[in-house]
Request: fold
Amino acid sequence: MPPITLSSPGAVFLQLGPITIRWYGIMIAAGFLAAMWAASFLAKRNNIDPDKFVNGSLIAFMTGILGARLYFVALSWDTFSQHPEEILATWLGGLSLHGGIAGGLLGGAIYCRIAKLPFLRCIDVAAAVVPLAQAIGRWGNFFNSEAFGRPVAENFLLRLYIPPESRPLDFQASSYFHPTFLYESVWNLWIFALLYFFLFDKLKAYPGMNFLMYVLLYSIGRLLIEPLRTDSIMLGNLPTPSVVSAVLIVVSSIALVVRYSSIKKRASSENDPKA
Reply:
């Protein structure tokens, strides 16, 4: 079987005079809209005001983008301190999903408090659809020829062609690389299917656990895929996202056990006539 080769057609979707429309922005916007469409069904089924949920999602989306960019800039400060004009140039790529999750969670929490929405139920709905947004958004990396993995052999079954100007200096002689953006996209799509179609209803009685399952599953995928990448920001000898993912795996696993035990204990106490 001949290798399947992926090759970006370029980062720009459309040029209208001074206005440039990039694939990166289109993919992020498409991911958000798809997630909102999917979330609307869950919000209605869980008696969450859909209009308020959309408003909160827009705020969480904006604070998530801001958090993703600031986190990436902070980790790459040696570069951005020399080019401060690029700090807000998100269309060039450079959004950290860990920072995005933190920023979105903070913005969503503030809005839920103001709008008097049930925070845990809202983040459970969000957690079920965010992987869909991530799965689509990762294709922005494809069009930007970024977030790819290490070189692969010429006959590797699924390979990504990277143009010379986008290759790291250490790999200028290589043409084909691991399509790590695709690996993560597929992993996120699987998380979406699992949480949205199978686990959400099963976990409805345990508010917050769907969100914790998302954090756990996403972190496992990131931990496995990150070592393949060539552009990881390093913390010593380890990729920073791998370190963060490992910490989140431990924290979310403990939180899942504690949350489940707490809810079961409370339910048992309420049903016990002697309590």
Notes: Strands lie at 4-7, 12-16, 19-22, 158-161, 176-177, 234-235, 238-239.
